[in-house]
Amino acid sequence: MGKNFNYNYAFLFYDVGEKRVNKVFKVCKKYLSHFQKSVFRGEITPANIILLKKDLKKVINENEDFVCIIKLMNDNVYGEEVLGNKQNNTGEDLII
Amino acid sequence: MGKNFNYNYAFLFYDVGEKRVNKVFKVCKKYLSHFQKSVFRGEITPANIILLKKDLKKVINENEDFVCIIKLMNDNVYGEEVLGNKQNNTGEDLII
C-alpha cells in the first residue's frame, strides 16, 4: 500500500500498558501534537518518523503494547468529521 | 482541507463514556472493520459515512463523548507502521 509515497504527516494511536502510558505519551508529544486520548497527529518528516519509532521501541513492551502510525503525504489528503465535544477530550490534564 | 475529494475509506476513533461503548462499537462495526481498541477502519461510501454519523448521533452523548472520522480517498493514500503485538489488541473479546 503506497510504499513509495513521500509521507510528511502522520496519525498515531497507541494501546499500551498503564505503566508505560506516560513514557509513550512523552515520546509522541516530542514529534506530534496530541489530538485526542491516545491519538496524536501532525506534520512529521520521514527522518523523524524513523526517530519516533526508535524512541517508541525503547519504551514499549513489544509483547503487550501496540502502536500504529498512519502516514499520509500531507494534511490535504484527508477529510475530518468530528461528533461530540472535542474540547472535553484533549486528555492532556489526565497525564502528569 | 480537501473538502472536494471523493472519500471512500475511513479511520474512526472514539472516546465515549463506558455506558455507551457497546452501542458505539456496534454502530461502527456495522460500517467499518474493528482495527484496534477504540479504532475502526475500512472502505465506506460517502453515503454510508452520512448514515454512520446519523447512527452515531443517536447513541452518543454529544456533551461527553467524542468521535472522529478521518476520511481518505482510498487505502492507497496511506502507509502504515505497526509496533508491538497487533494480535493481542483486537479488543473484540473485551466487548460482549
The most extensive contact between chains is: A-B, 47 and 47 residues
Task: Tell me the strand percentage band of chain A.
Answer: 25-35%
Are there runs of chain A of 5+ residues with pLDDT below 50, and where?
Answer: 88-96
Strand order of the largest sheet of chain A: 2-3-1-4
Total count of strands of chain A? 5
CATH class category name of the domain at 9-72 in chain A: Alpha Beta
What CATH architecture of the domain at 9-72 in chain A would you give?
A: 2-Layer Sandwich
Q: What is the overall pLDDT average of chain A?
A: 87
What oligomeric arrangement do these chains adopt?
Answer: homodimer
| Overall spatial form of chain A | globular
Percent helix of chain A: 25-40%
Biggest beta sheet attributes of chain A = 4 strands, antiparallel
Distance between the termini of chain A: 38 Å
SSE arrangement of chain A, N to C:
EHEEHEE
Structural class of chain A: alpha+beta
Task: Walk me through what this model shows.
With 96 residues, chain A is α+β, with helices and mostly antiparallel strands. Chain A has a domain at 9-72: Alpha-Beta Plaits (2-Layer Sandwich). The first copy, chain A, is 29% helix and 31% strand. Chain A has two helices and five strands. Chain A has helices at residues 18-31, 46-59, and strands spanning 9-15, 33-36, 39-43, 66-72, 78-84. Chain A has a four-stranded antiparallel β-sheet with strand order 2-3-1-4, with helices on one face. In chain A, helix 1 (18-31) runs antiparallel to helix 2. Chain A is globular and about 35 Å long. Chain A starts with 8 loop residues before the first strand and ends in a 12-residue tail after the last strand. The relative contact order of chain A is 0.27. At the A-B interface, strand 1, helix 2, strand 4 and strand 5 of A face strand 1, helix 2, strand 4 and strand 5 of B. Chains A, B: Keywords: Antiviral defense, Endonuclease, Hydrolase, Magnesium, Metal-binding, Nuclease. Chains A, B: This is CRISPR-associated endoribonuclease Cas2.
